[in-house]
Amino acid sequence: MTPFLQLALALAVIIAAAKAAGYLSYRLGQPSVLGELLVGVLLGPSVIDLLHLAYFTDSHLPDVIHEMAEMGVLLLMFIAGLDLHLSDLAKTGKVSVFSGVLGVVFPMALGVAVGLLASMELGAAVFLGLVLSATSVSISAQTLMEMRVLRSRVGYGLLGAAVFDDILVILGLSIFSAMAISDSGAGLGDIIVIILRMILFLGGATVIGMLVLPKFSRRIAGLPISQGLVAFTIVIILLFGWGAEEWGRMAAITGAFMAGLVFSRSSVKERIETGISALAYGMFVPIFFIDVGLKADIRQIGGSALIFFLGMTLAAIIGKVLGAGLGASLGGFSRRESLQLGIGMMSRGEVGLIAASLGITQGLITQEIFSAMVGMVVVTTLLTPPLLRLAFRPSQPPKKPDAPIVSDSSGISTLTDPTLDGG
Length: 423
Prior knowledge:
Distance between the termini: 31 Å
Structural class: mainly alpha
Shape: globular
CATH architecture: Up-down Bundle
Helix content: over 70%
Strand order of the largest sheet: 1-2
CATH topology: Na+/H+ antiporter like fold
Number of domains: 1
Mean pLDDT: 82
Largest sheet: 2 strands, antiparallel
Strand content: under 5%
Number of helices: 18
Radius of gyration: 21 Å
């Protein structure tokens, strides 16, 4: 088969498996993302190793799938930001700061301790702490949208805390890399530049988003261009994601989330949500959830690596729940809300995978440790949806769906609620 036909077949299997597993998980009373993540592990090297079967001979196929998955997480974080408003996010400012900071400090300290107990060098142990400090709220945001509680105090606090968490972790990784390649004391200027670039990007993106993009979106919506508004939105998502990494030295998902916040103020928000949701949930988001499982090979975790994996996973869970939860409590949340936010910060997702990949690329960790890190990412990601549902279930009353039925320009009604869309 040609490389394109191999890609077509792989995508057909991945999307079909994701939707079927998501539906089965939903019928069993669990978030659809849980089924998608589990089937991803089954399709990965742990069991089937789909992308390395005899049918697939293209060595670039896993990379192509991964890049499409990255597009999925950008769209997912854009939708999460689109469902929020800056004024609502600002109301949880104290919670966001405290949870974001303590949600980094606690797992960082536990990660360094686990690394030193495993006889790792100090530099590698610090890197392990940084990996454990990472948070990916894309899966938590998807789960909260499914439960129709994203627009709640916990939802706003979670996403706000994730922004601070992302800034601190990316800054920490950047500082670590700068110090690793610099003489002692020579990296101070680089660190200051990184901080300034983050501030400039966040400020510049906010100004452009609030003053320019709403006007452009209204004008483009009125032009006789086929799906012009959706195309314009995709361009902005990509540019904000690119700018976040290239200019702001932050994760691309932060830029996509900011783009969503910007368009949440637009008068054509519903049309944007309809088009982007169809594209995201119909193709790219399922690929992302499957790709998380495709990165894990649990067969490599054995012997001493198994003990290291268990200790690291325990530190990852306790560090985030206690750290972020304590921060939420200090910010004024109740004990229950603090627990809910702490659990929501537990997933490492693609951010943890990116950080772990940096370690293997720079030779800081071995392939065995990398597999254990990927296993930790998968476990924390798998545990987050059911634990979130359990934390909300006892006292959470039914709420109006986050995403209503809207109509596109052709008059065709589209249901954008991911609960019924299968995630």
